[in-house]
Amino acid sequence: MLIFIDTEFSDFINTELISIGLVSQNDKKFYAELPIERRECSDFVKEVVLPQLGKIKDAQCTLQVLPPTEN
């Protein structure tokens, strides 16, 4: 199965995850937005990414509710 992933993050130096979207080839979807401090974001993220957030109902969550990862 193929899974397509898209993420947004704060900047290239101190990367903090802002959002993650996953879509499987059988069209199952997952999308989440994490809280972020505006001051931690690059100018690009402030201008382009942040205005797009908050448009999907129930997408806001905390890092603690995202599924754990295995190392």
Total number of helices? 1
Structural domain count: 1
> What average pLDDT do the residues reach?
89
Rg calculated over all Cα atoms:
13 Å
Biggest β-sheet, characterized?
Answer: 3 strands, antiparallel
Using the coordinates shown, work out and report the CATH topology. Nucleotidyltransferase, domain 5
Reading off the top of the CATH hierarchy, the class is best stated as: Alpha Beta
Description:
The chain has 71 residues and is mostly beta strands. It has one helix at residues 43-49; strands at 3-9, 17-24, 29-33. The chain has a single domain (3-65), classed as Nucleotidyltransferase, domain 5, CATH 3.30.420. The chain is built from 1 helix and 3 strands. The chain has a 3-stranded antiparallel sheet, with no helix packed on it. The longest helix is centred in the middle third of the chain and has 7 residues, at 43-49. It is globular, with a radius of gyration of 13 Å. The mean pLDDT is 89.
